[in-house]
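Just curious. Invent one:
>
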Amino acid sequence: MRVDIYRRPEPEGRFSHLVVPEGKPIPQEATNTDWSSEQRGVEMDEGQEHWEELGIPEPGRQLRDKGYAITSVEEQPRS
């Protein structure tokens, strides 16, 4: 699946990622924070159990259920 990846800073030098299907807008419930575009049109396998590099568990389920996938609070990587 081709996706667009957004990033936002978090406390303590950490950051989160938000992933939406390519060309789709960020869903309204996730627009209340400042996301900056990081990559567009990236091929990612939503069938994977985990996107380690983004700290996103169950990306396929998240994309199906919410229309986006987001970094788990417990997995926010440091910048």
The helical segments are 59-66. The radius of gyration is 11 Å. The chain has a mean pLDDT of 90. The longest strand covers residues 2-9.
